[in-house]
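Key idea: predict the complex, not the pieces.
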Amino acid sequence: MSAMPGIVAINTFREAVRDRVLYNLVLFALMMIGAAILVGQISLGIERLVIINLGLSAISIFGLLMAVFIGVGLVYKEMEKRTLYTLLAKPIRRSEFLVGKYGGLLLTLVVNTAFMTLGLVAALYYVGRPFVSADAWIFVAIYFIVLEFALVTAIALFFSCFSSPMLSALFTLGIYVTGVFGTDIRDFGEFTKSPVLKVATRSLYYVIPNFHNFNVIGAVAHGEAIPVSLIWQNSLYAILYVTLVLVAASAVFSRRNMK
Amino acid sequence: MSTPAIEIVGLTKDYPVGFWRKRMRRSLDNLTLQVEDGEVFGFLGPNGAGKTTTLKLLTGLIFPTAGTARVRGRSIDDFRMHRDIGYLPEQPYFYDYLTARELLDYYARFSNYSAVERRERVDRFLGLVGLASAANVQLRKFSKGMLQRAGIAQAILHDPPVVFLDEPMSGLDPIGRREVRDIILDLKRQGRTVFFSTHILSDAEMLCDRVAVLAGGKLQGVGAPGDFVSPEVSGMEILFEMRDGRPLPSVLTRAVSIGTRYRLEVPDAELYCTVDRLRECEARILSIAPVRPTLEDYFIRVVGQERTAVHALEGMAR
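Result:
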């Protein structure tokens, strides 16, 4: 396997790490977890539920914002700033460049999520409650959140190949929201009498990634176990979907004229 | 016969212009030329002539509407072609959060050098372009000239046999320009092919084995700089000054004042009678030199012709 995507990924990661906005987001997420501790103190008996709910939600929301707002500029910014000119003249395929940019942002998100997870664990430790085996499911919820990031980053990168950051962000967020309510939208279509609407909602359900299945925050907060089959299913689904989106992005980008 | 370093056949590029009613604008029109191995080749033309478009096509940044090109026998569509080229874009932009050393190290990684080799190369090329003392400074603090130097270093860092430089002297002070000229001559000594665009004609005359002149996207001529210059003398240039601040005689009003001196260009046949007149009014003759058409004269003539033709066509269209 070519080492080229890895070189680009490390540089993308370095760029993100040197970007102060990223630190601010992490700081903000940590503040959210701090707030969870406060809320936990005034929620007698349900500290664990509140802290896990708020903590995981903060990790998910801030990670998603990073994935969307950094992702939509990944390729566009390089084209606008013309930093791509010197790079694409080097022996690197455009698809390798894309995979590298994708990998770099995903690595950034994973590292940030790891730090935020540490914050969450510290918050749970702070309220003085002993850890139980059910807490291990928190890490499964975080794994699903990372899979969500993987999907959202791929979609943002795809739009970044041919659209402005503003439009790309709108499209990506639109797809995310549709994906969260994908099952509801399909059910709504099933209830209608219009066959056109039925086909449209069913198509949306299959084409847009189903983010609903990745959200297990509520279940984990209540100490419920996550089926192993769901872990496999979500992993394979994310890998397949990300691969398809990256192939599509490469197809668009490989024939794109630089300005 | 050896493979030419660069072979361009009928290369054409159209760009869509307009928002609602898109129409095509031809930026490069049926360019055909060949650059031999080891040549320093100058690509001359005014702004908007199609020089940058040609370089972007040759480096795979944009795709041709028609025509083909090969670099060292490999099509520009062939990914492996990129191993043989180095490229300095016009007004280069880099990741400004990196230092010069980090930037060159990043680019060197694409050529699969070991860590030791990379370090050695990065140091050597930073020194070569005069950036050794700024090696650990972030590029966002670099001046335009320093960025240009970093750009040249990344273009030649991996010893490519063919180097494309888009306006390499742009943004450089006289010392920087001389250093870049020395780098280009050094590349030539190493047997590399250098293809560079410029509108600084003195650089082209000084460095190039051959030049091509482009105007309005069309090739106007290719040849050695001397080929564009007629060996025949077109006239004589006389440099003189008037004694004791005397006024210029009315018969010599064609003379152009340069400070306290005058410059007069006369046809060859009028030289002796003009010298007689100058002696009559006791002018001090400083020099007499033959006037030959320069590359600049040729350049201005072809660009002027192209612009006249375009204006005529636009007038007809109206």
